[in-house]
Each structure stands twice: as C-alpha cells, then as structure tokens.
Design goal:
With 448 residues, the chain is of the alpha/beta class. Helices cover 46% and strands 15% of the residues. The two termini are 36 Å apart.
C-alpha cells in the first residue's frame, strides 16, 4: 500500500479517534488530575502569552514523558547556552512529564528562557496551529517519537526536524517494516537522526532514515542532583545498618513477582543458622518504586495483601531521622513520590531495574550505575540493549529472571565484596560513556 493512501487513512482515523482521545483524557484524570489541565493545547490552542517575543527565535524540544524529559536536560541546557537569545519550547504528552520539566528546568523557566506546552494530537490542522504560534526554526524529537503528520507538517513548513538520542530495537524495527515503503517515507522525513548506538543507527537506516549518526546516550550526561543524593544518604542513615534493595520503576505485574521473591529471601535469612562468626544479619528492607504514580495505591495494596509491614515515603516527611523507629519496623517502603529516584538510589545497596522481568523493554539503568550501586537486570532490556550489554560486560550488572531473582538477591545481599566491586564498575561505566550531549549539539550544527 502506498504512503499517500496510508497517510490518508491515518489522517481520517484521527478525526474518528479524536472524541475517544478526549474522553480518554477525562477517564485518565480520575487517577491523574493533570490530564484535565491544558486540554486546549492538545488541540493546538495556546495562551497568547506563551508565544515567543516578536522577532525572537524558538528552538523546540519534544520529550514525551518523565524519562525523555530528564534525558533531555544536558541537551536543553546546551541549547540555552549556545543560543542565549532564543526561547526553548519544551513539549510533552503526559502530566508527569510536564511536572518533571517544571522541576528540572525551573531556572530557565524563571528566566523566561523556556516555555512548556503539550504537543497536539497528530493531526495536520492542529500541528499547523502550534507551528504558527511558536514559530520554531528547529525541532529535536527525543528517542522514539515518530509521528507521521508531525514529520509531514514540519517538512511542509520548513522546520528542520531531528530525531535526537534515537533508539530502535530489533522488535520495533520489524513492526515498522510491516508498512513497507511508507515506513521509509516517514523516517526519511527527518532532516537528521542522531542515534544512541551504532546498532540503533543501522536499524534506523534500514527504515529509511537519512543522515544518521551515532552520538551516544544522553542519559549518561544527566548530572546527579547533590540535594537528592544528600537526602538519600539521610534516608539510609535513618534506616540504619539494614541493607536496602531498590526495585526501581516497576511496571504492572512485576510487583507480585518481586514481593514473592522478597518473602522467600526473608524466610531464607531467618532459617540461616547463626554462628559466632556469622551472627544473624538485620533483615533487609525492600524499597519498591512503581514507574507510574497512578499505580502507587495498587502497589500498596499488593504489598499489604502479601503480609508485609508497609510504610509510605509520602508519610515520612522531610525529617527521616524522626522516622527511624518506624522504619525499623518496616519490611517494604513504597516510594510513592515523583522526582526522587536519585534519592532512592543513594539510599539503596542494590538496584533492581523494573520493566525487565516482563517483556516491557526495561527502564533506565544508567542512573543506578552512576550512583555506584550494583544493578540487577531481568531478561527483557531491549529498550536499553546496548547499555545493558555494556554494563553486564564490565561487571556493573547481573542478569536474572523471575525464577532466579530470589537466589540472586540472597547471594548478593550476603556478598559485600561483590557489591562493592559492581558498584565501582558501575561508576567507571557511567563515566566512560559521558559526552553524548556535546556530540549531539555538534552534530546538530547551527539551527538555521
């Protein structure tokens, strides 16, 4: 089927789907109120005050949600430094991404250098409204956001469009290839593609992308916030001598697997016969951090149903020392907060990366490595395939699955030497791969 016919069907489909998409916002707002806010922006209507000043220039970065928004930090600040007279437009698709952007780029927002907005639905009429309002000269789309109408409208309006920090798994490539020549037309619409790895670059070329180069992964360049690290150390001090396992960014279905393994680990530790040389250790603490805030209540319910003594991070407040007694009685601490992952990594002794126990592609392991913590990966890390392979190869990470999770945790909890060795390897691994932001900015060149 030709690109033009598929694109016509796609555009017609969006007109039919638009009422459903708006109703879905209302439905999702039951758990996440942010979906009710700024709805007009999703239709390409923006406040007049958000337009760049007359004669001013706009550089546009699209970061769909939390992960992409954080990953874009070195890129956004690099653009702001190189183009001090320009306004940066940062677009999102989710309320959590928007809130994260408000925190991460608070300095640029306060200076009037950065404006946040939602990207409209992928309909030409809505996208043209957005481009007329903000008048961007350059668009940098983060990682995997490939929208046919967005690409076509930017091309027609003369907006240079780049896919930055791009990744493409083998599975995603096979799915895209089902559309034949139309796929090549869509991916060929980007003016430039800057991929995370050579493997990503090769797959993107197969899909029709032009001017493709591998510039590295921006996530290696995201600096750890000292205040979050200090807060994590304070939490660790309040927890005391107990070892902490952080199950980070867990997805639906994974908490059940992790809690089951954790129950067996605690039972195994209780059965271990103490000796004079090896007194019984303090029971470790599981720090469970779901990926999506709308699942915090579900994760808490699962934890209680499994019979664990549960505490919520939201109930601890800012003075962790005052909660030391409560933490001593806790078996699972639920990380029901946003923007504190660096704190959780600073507080833990082992990091288990969510999204990897089930075929969900995995979540970002780089921040855990950069925090100097040993990392456990499930078998499904295809969204971070190269970074995972490199971390495993250098000894910063171990691979396991749901069946071997209990044994792996039990072994690593009892081996301080291996934990230290893996943590040191993780720090070296993260440091060795820095520099992607500079390479990306250099590859992008002048935006005019």
């Amino acid at each position: 089927m030709s690109y033009f016919l598929l694109y016509a069907i796609y555009r017609a489909g969006w007109w039919l789907a638009l009422p459903v998409a708006l109703l879905r916002l209302l439905w999702r707002s039951r758990q996440e109120r942010g979906y009710r806010e700024h709805v007009a922006e999703r239709l390409g209507c923006y406040p007049a005050a958000s337009a760049p000043r007359a004669g001013g220039e706009c550089l546009w970065v699209h970061a769909v949600s939390v992960g992409e928004t954080r990953a874009a930090e070195p890129l956004v600040h690099g653009l702001a430094q190189r183009h001090p007279q320009a306004t940066i437009l940062l677009t999102h698709m989710t309320p959590t991404g928007r809130r994260t952007g408000a925190e991460v780029y608070a300095d640029l927002i306060a200076q009037g250098r950065l404006t946040q907005a939602y990207l409209p639905y992928d309909m030409p009429i809505l996208l043209r409204r957005m481009l007329r309002h903000f008048r961007p000269r350059l668009g940098l789309v983060m990682e995997t956001e490939v929208w046919p109408a967005m690409i076509a409208v930017c091309k027609a309006q003369g907006v240079k469009l780049m896919l930055a920090n791009a990744r493409m798994s083998e599975r995603s490539k096979r799915r895209a290839q089902r559309f034949g020549a139309a796929t090549r037309t869509v991916f060929g619409g980007f003016d430039q593609v800057l991929a995370q790895t050579e493997a990503d670059a090769a797959r993107l070329r197969e899909l029709g992308a032009q001017r493709v180069s591998a510039t590295g992964n921006l996530k290696f360049d995201v600096a750890l916030k000292p205040e979050l690290s200090a807060r994590g150390e304070a939490l660790k001090h309040a927890i005391g001598a107990r070892l902490v396992v952080c199950a980070a960014s867990t997805r639906h279905g994974e908490e059940t697997l992790i809690l089951s393994a954790w129950s067996k680990v605690l039972a195994h530790l209780k059965r271990a016969a103490p000796t004079q040389e090896n007194p019984p250790p303090s029971a470790p603490l599981l720090l469970l951090v779901p990926r999506h805030p709308q699942r915090f209540d579900e994760a808490a319910s699962l934890t209680k149903s499994a019979g664990f003594a549960l505490a919520l991070r939201s109930d601890l407040g800012a003075d962790f020392a005052a909660q030391a007694q409560r933490l001593a009685q806790t078996e699972v601490l639920l990380g029901d907060s946003m923007g504190e992952m660096a704190m959780y990594y600073a507080a833990c002794d082992i990091a288990l990366i969510g999204g990897s126990l089930l075929p969900l592609g995995g979540q970002n392991l780089i921040e855990a490595c950069a925090s100097g913590k040993p990392v456990l990966l499930g078998p499904h890390m295809f969204n971070f395939a190269q970074a995972s392979a490199d971390a495993l190869a250098c000894g910063a990470a171990l691979r396991m699955d749901a069946e071997s999770l209990e044994a792996t945790l039990f072994h690593l909890l009892g081996d301080a030497v291996q934990r230290a060795r893996m943590g040191e390897a993780g720090l070296a691994f993260a440091q060795a791969h820095r520099g992607a932001a500079l390479r990306l900015l250099q590859a992008a060149g002048a935006p005019y």
